Batch of 3 targets.
Target 1
Amino acid sequence: FPVTIQPQNQVVTQLDSGYVRVSWWEGVSTRTDKDHHHDSIIHAWLLTLPGIKKIGQETFEFDLKLYTLEIISQMIYEKFFSGKEEVYEVFDPRPYQTKFSQKIPTAWNQKKYLEFLLFAKCRAGKSVMVLKHIVDSNYKLSVVCSRQKSPEGSWYNDSKRFFPTIKYISVKDPSWEVQLAYWMDRDVNIVLWGTVQSIIKRLDKISNVDFLAFDEAHIGGTADQFVQVRNTLNTRTCYISGTAHKLCWMFPEEGQKFV
């Protein structure tokens, strides 16, 4: 996919069937002289990188084995705009969300439990609660999966809205391995999303997982496929559901669940 740099706001876009804004920086400059061509400095720098070549006046293509658009955006940010903070909303947890944040690390710290149940009603903010736990615990790599695709939107949106340290990767992205390798070397919290079925197909490429979350666990939470994922990753596991009545028997002690 070619990359273009627009001069006004230093916009990195993907050119395919339409205009897709990926990253932009406003109110900052790449020059100290009076020249207004701020983007030319970035253009020249891009050409020093392996696997990137110019194919138009402001258009570049890159090797998909080395980069993604988000990786190139991050490289530009680190090189030219690292002094400008990204804007995120501050997550102000409700009292019950704070109680969850306080309880779940206790289960792990006591080393008594490897599994935990988050049983909360619909629209209680379960994804943002778990994402906060990921950030608070500074997990390097977390895997979030579900039997169905539908929960993905809340995980993606909440991570982008509230948590600047989280880098969200979907295993359905053809470049997910490139992204994973890149972000593993940086000080971020990686959230790797996929359906249970898609994660199983890639288990041989996923290792050193700090935390596993199974959303909508009432659908397939005890099925062979998820058991395979859980046993292979062998890490802290949080079952998440708004209708977890059929799972409660798995968590008989008060210290291993939040209801």
Target 2
Amino acid sequence: APRLLELGAAPAPAAAEAAASVLTAIAEEVVAFPGDDTGAAERRDALAALAGSLPAVLSFLRASLDAHAPAALAGDAGAGSACRAALAAALALAEWAPLGALATAGVLSAAGALLTCADADLRLCAADVLRGVVGRKQAQEDPGEYGAAMAAAGGALVGAASALLASPTAAAALDYDGDLDEYGLRLADALASFGGAHLGKLPAEEARRACVGALLALSRHPYLPLAGRAVAVWPHLLASAGGGGGGGGGGGGASTP
């Protein structure tokens, strides 16, 4: 891993893309899709090696996004490929890596920043990363670090959804075959997942109200696949607001705007 990260840190975006792609393949093969030819002992060894290098890997991914995102947003295809590869690696690692580590390394904030960027492909990749994060259970993670990571991911999703819905062209762009059709579906998926399970992780009442307001606006959209993603979370939110459920993450409930 150290040699791979050293090669990936070269100025050329192709090197960063290659390194991130290898990291994605390792993470998916060892953790998500262990093949029949991967024995238990070998899998444990590979997972231990990957986990041991996690801080360096996450630091590399953040540095790669910082280095290549400006050129990617300026239209550089190679830089765009490097950023997409870094986000794909982050998504693969978000399946199992401690969320506190992703937040500390700045990977979540980098994905959050790209969630509203001008590049459509990068927006989709960033939405996928945050959607993967908010779908995670706490398991054995430190409650404080887990809550802070969820708040960071949720805050980015709420900010992106609120900004998008405030645009006068949002209704048409989010409709079937609109410019933001697929992005809207992924964003709504992630926001509904967050709102249903972690709303109370947002520390500010204003942010919680903004989350509920965005879900309400999405629920009213005439494009049924989009509205359906937001509608599905309402029974849980209403039960939580009425004291019948605790999915708001504790504290804050699901107060309406």
Target 3
Amino acid sequence: KSIGTFISANKIALSGDIPLKQKKDEFIKAIEEDKKNYLPYYYLGILVYQEENNVKRSMEYFEKAIEANPRNPMAYNNLIARYGQANMEKEQLELVKKTIKLFPDFPEGYFSLAAINFRNKNYLDSIKYAKLSIEKYEKMKKLDYSYITESLKNKYESDAYYLVFLNYVGMEKYDEAFENSKEAYIFMAQKDNELRYTMYDTLVDIAQEIKKTNKIKYKEYSAVLNSLQFAEQLVKANKDLQERKSGDKTINSNPLKID
């Protein structure tokens, strides 16, 4: 009965014209019917954060979701994020380590550790764990974590690629940033993730700054930007062939000029 009530509550929660209190009441009703059903707690944690920006209450619901079902890594993942927003750095790190221990093949545990290391400017460790999360995603089977949709998986993996890039920029290792951008950009273009445009713009800014002092290096960087532009066009052409549609956002021209 609780599952049926939860399904009904979830449908109501997805409706934009239903008052927040009614949405919450429906999930609470499912909890009252079965306090061992972790799903209402989990979705209440999402709901109160998204619609009320209530970080503390969101944490409480995710903690209860974990208590009801300690084998759902997404509850840990959301609680890790809330701890970060609440500046509970010690608790966040402890939970990340616990998540990795409990779910060694769950990529987001490693991504969270990479993000913490990036925040603390431990760039090499951040790169190591971000790359490990990418590796875990590449090996992930659909049945392993069926609740992670293909689109969500692509988003998370794009985030990891972008974090690797940000670490190289943070270290001012621009050669590595440009070199690693190639694989990252192609992946993001194939998955239509817009982080690639942010990455491209950052590369343009770096190249423009380098131009003032090193024209040879500037030409090398400009060549990489041209290759990214070409990759964008190839991906788009392939999508057009497969989907018979056009009009996707692309970088139409490289704003840099090779002197």
